[in-house]
Amino acid sequence: MARNWTRDELILAMSLYCRLPFGKYDKGNAEVIQLSECINRTPSSVAMKLSNLASLDPFHQERGVRGLANASKSDRAIWQEFHADWEALADESVRLESEYELLPNLEIIEEPLQFEGATESTRVTKVRRAQRFFRSTVLASYEERCCITKIQNKELLIASHIIPWSEDATKRADPHNGLCLNALHDKAFDRGLITLDEEYRLVHSQQLRDAYTVEAMNRFFRPYEGEPIHFPWRFLPDRECLERHRNQIFVA
Predict the structure, then answer these.
(1) Tens digits of residue pLDDT in 140-174
(2) Domain named HNH nuclease: which ranges (predicted)?
């Protein structure tokens, strides 16, 4: 008789779904095998679960990717729970991955953040867990490629927040609030020198355009103005987040 998936197992599967590149959900994948061994299931069972989770993704549904179309009630519940509170589930998934020794070798990009009412150690732990989840999910969604320049050197890539981490607690770990940018364009986006329009095309501020006379600025920015980003294969940037960036951060 088939053994039902526990909540912890579903969280681990959802976390793996978020950080694996599309097309890597097969039973021969090393991380699929690793998870299957930790939760005492077959690699085929884990691969099937990942495919079922993919069938729930609206982005894949629009593209006609249906997965196995056998998602269970519990699959739908964990999917909805993640989307309702990304930060809480990110924290829980990374905690479980740590317990099962499943954490990938991933550096943490620290950001100044305060968690009101928590101890200092708890704040640091929550920051690191959320950042780890956010970075791995965003980079995997963009196939570890800058969405503007297509640079693929992981050491140069940042999981950028569209709405700054400190400004909206509900968006801190939400991959829909993320862009994969190289370090230079991440800083420009953070400072409001660039943004994206309603069609996901790159927009430059007048301040940036005025600097085109400088050779380096002309080389690293001008060729990309007006061009659409390289789209992620899941977790498309949220239009409302981008609108807030244009209205509140971008320096026109």
Answers:
(1) 999 999 999 999 999 999 999 999 998 998 999 99
(2) 146-197
86-99 and 120-141 are packed helices; what angle lies between their axes, rounded to 10 degrees? 100
Record the tokens describing residue 5, joined without a space.
């998936």
Q: Which of 211, 209, 212, 198 has its CA nearest to residue 246?
A: 198
Angle at the Cα of 179 (from 246 to 53), degrees rounded to 5? Answer: 125
Phi/psi for 87 (5° steps) reads -65, -45
On average, the pLDDT of the chain sits at 88
Q: Picking from 5-14, 84-93, 109-118, 218-227, which range would have the lowest pLDDT averaged per residue?
A: 109-118
Q: Where are the domains of the chain?
A: 7-105, 143-249
pLDDT tens for residues 172-210? 999 999 999 999 999 999 999 999 999 999 999 999 998
Tell me the pTM: 0.86
In angstroms, the CA 53 to CA 115 distance is 31
- Give the per-residue pLDDT at 24: 85
Specify whether the CB–CB gap between 157 and 146 falls below 8 A.
yes
